[in-house]
Design goal:
alpha/beta, Response regulator transcription factor, 10 helices, 11 strands, Rossmann fold, four-stranded antiparallel sheet, phosphorelay response regulator activity, transcription cis-regulatory region binding, Arc Repressor Mutant, subunit A
């Protein structure tokens, strides 16, 4: 049984998380005992390394136990400096990050580590204001889970963050072929987006995309010239479901634009269609 959780953010967190972690651990164990086989994707996802940056010992330990039951390799830290050192020694595939930490806070950690990793960063925090969510996403986070939470939701979000969506290998008006990728005209010259390799290149330069940016660009690129509403994009970026404000898409579009177009005054790859949504304009 996981250790009793302390409740720095109030009693309901401790009771809710302990019950949910314990019950989900039992159900996960039962599923694994009766599962007749696993897909290649299941095995690949389970082999991934997860970092938990959380200063609540009880919650951190319970998350670690749950994820280890699911087959993940887990590293844990209670402060940002330790987390940075762990990732420098051996990079993680996905990170769960609390915002309210002693010393370096979660926002600063995300801004520090984002330039050197494309690993999905999922914030787990009791701070549930819209400004906090936007600030975390603008700092470089890919997703945001509010406390108290069900660990089954965290598991689903980890799987979604690690998932690379399938896509049809068919020609499109953007010059898309399996060999060449999707050719996009940016303000700094042509880009080649290769969904199979999950890369975006400008000449020999590889523009690093986060998991969420990849899914956003893929959703737009597979429907070139078509206006995609925020709701359309949310359903493709978070297929397991998204419970927040759909305007979170605007934050990710803004971040993606800074990578593909450095001149904000010129017409770029991604166009805003006022009152409707966004459209990708390929070559």
């Amino acid at each position: 049984m996981p250790p009793t959780l302390t409740a720095p953010y109030g009693g309901p967190l401790a009771v809710s998380c302990q019950f949910r972690v314990t019950s989900t651990l039992r159900s996960a164990t039962a599923r694994r005992r009766h599962r007749s086989g696993e897909t290649i994707r299941d095995v690949q996802e389970a082999a991934r390394r997860v970092l938990i940056l959380e200063d609540d010992y009880g919650l951190r330990t319970s998350l670690r136990l749950f994820l280890e039951q699911e087959g993940y390799t887990v590293g844990e830290a209670d402060d940002a400096e330790v987390a940075l050192s762990l990732d420098a020694e051996r990079p993680f595939d996905v990170m769960l990050v609390d915002l309210m930490l002693g010393g370096i806070d979660g926002f600063t950690f995300i801004r520090s580590i984002r330039p050197r990793t494309t690993a999905p960063i999922i914030v787990i925090s009791a701070r549930d204001g819209a400004k906090d969510v936007v600030a975390a996403l603008e700092a470089g986070a890919d997703d945001y889970v509010r406390k108290p939470f069900d660990v089954a939701e965290v598991r689903a979000r980890i799987k979604a963050a690690l998932r690379r969506p399938d896509y049809p290998l068919v020609p499109a008006s953007g010059g898309y072929t399996p060999a060449s990728g999707i050719v996009l005209d940016s303000t700094d010259g042509p880009l080649v987006f290769d969904p199979a390799a999950a890369t975006l290149r400008r000449g020999a330069e590889d523009l690093h995309l986060t998991s969420t940016e990849f899914k956003l660009l893929l959703a737009l690129a597979t429907s070139p010239g078509r206006v995609m509403t925020r709701e359309n994009l949310v359903s493709q970026m978070w297929p397991e479901g998204h419970h927040g404000d759909v305007r979170v898409v605007d934050v990710h579009v803004s971040r993606l634009r800074t990578k593909v177009d450095t001149d904000p005054t010129s017409r770029g790859v991604i166009s805003t269609v006022r009152g409707l949504g966004y459209r990708l304009d390929p070559r």
